[in-house]
UniProtKB/TrEMBL annotation:
InterPro entries: YceD (IPR003772). It comes from the Bacteria. This is DUF177 domain-containing protein. Pfam families: YceD.
Length: 184
């Protein structure tokens, strides 16, 4: 916990204005957290804290690299990280996560620890396929860069305009016979 205590920000008694914090960490940060995703890494983070009477806005800019294990070769490699993220902490009566970006914290909170936010931002920025740069092909590069997957439409219940106009012009003769019986 000694490593993670470097990420405490005392908010009690802060005036309503902007504050800047610079944080730097390495392997000890990832070892301290109970996780298996990242073994080693080093990064620098610049945190801009905007405090107002009702909320705290935290903006993070993180640069560095983390060591990952390749899914194909099981060899370690460094993946660069360059992130810009934001968290809003609203003052309330209890602690609650409202959305991905907004959390409610108790008014009496003296300090906040941003280590969890930093790890979450780094973990979410990692590619789903962890492939060593030497083994990446053009197709793998596209997969890593694009968040959108190719979608193939298998079934659609919506009718196209051609189908609708074709049905009005050409009616099944069996239906015509039934309409005659009905008297239309």
């Amino acid at each position: 916990m000694k490593e993670l205590s470097k990420y405490n920000i005392d908010i009690y008694g802060l005036e309503d204005k902007q504050y800047d914090y610079d944080m730097e960490s390495g392997d000890a940060f990832f070892e301290e957290l109970d996780q298996d995703l990242i073994e080693r890494g080093h990064f620098k983070t610049h945190v801009v804290l905007n405090k107002s009477a009702t909320m705290i806005q935290l903006q993070f800019h993180t640069e560095g690299a983390v060591t990952l294990i390749c899914d194909r070769s099981l060899e370690p490699f460094e993946e660069p990280i360059n992130l810009d993220d934001r968290i809003i902490l609203k003052f309330g009566d209890h602690d609650e996560e409202l959305t991905e970006e907004i959390e409610m914290i108790n008014r009496n909170t003296n300090k906040i620890n941003v280590a969890r936010y930093l790890f979450d931002f780094i973990a979410l920025s990692l590619p789903t396929k962890k492939i060593h740069p030497d083994l990446r092909s053009d197709e793998d590069e596209l997969d890593l860069e694009d968040d959108e997957e190719e979608v193939i439409l298998v079934y659609s219940s919506a009718e196209t305009e051609e189908e609708e106009s074709g049905e009005e012009e050409k009616i099944d003769p069996r239906w015509e016979a039934l309409k005659k019986l009905k008297g239309e």
